[in-house]
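Review this:
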Amino acid sequence: MNEAQRIGALEAMLFAHAEAVETERLADALRLPTEETRELLLRLQQRYDEGESGLALLRFEPDRWQMTTRPYYGEMVKRILDTRRNAPLSPAALEVLAVIAYNQPVSRSFIEQVRGVDSSSTVTKLLEKGLIEEAGRLDLPGKPVAFQVTDTFLRVFGMGSLQDLPPLHEEAGEPAPVQNEDGTDAPEQLEWK
C-alpha cells in the first residue's frame, strides 16, 4: 500500500469504529510501526484542518483518535439525522460532573457528601448520557462502585484530557503570588502597622 492508501485505510477504520481508538491498535491493523501510524494520523488531521473539511480528527490522551464532524456543521447534521435537541445539563448534573472530574474515581456517597444532597438520579442520568462510567469498585467498606468521566465528557467539553480542566480556586486565605511583568514572582511587600 502507498501512503494515500494507508491514510484511506485509517479513515475507513476510524469511520467504522466510531469511538476513540488507540494508535497502537490502528498500527496493528495496518501492520505498520506505531510511530509511522501516528505520523499518518497527524497528516490526516492536518488535511482535514487545512481543507476546511466537515470532518475533524480528534486526539485524546494518552494516544487515542476519533473521527468526528466539526461543531460548525452540527445544526445541519442534526437536521439530516432528524434528531431531537438534547436537553442542556442541569446545574446538579454539572456539579456532579465537576466532583467526579476533579476527584475521580469516586463513589456515589462521596459525591453526595460533597454536594450535601442525594445524587442518585443525577448519576443515573449522566451514566445514560455516557458522560460518566463505572470504574470498578473502591477498596472501601462495602466495595462501592467508583465513577469516572468518559471520552464523551472530554469531547463534549472540548478537552483532550483531564489536564485541560481549569484549575480550582486558590485555597481560602492564600492570595495568589504577585508577579512581575516578566512573569517572575515579585518579592513580598512588608506591611507597616
User: Anything to note?
Assistant: Confidence is low (pLDDT under 50) at residues 186-193.
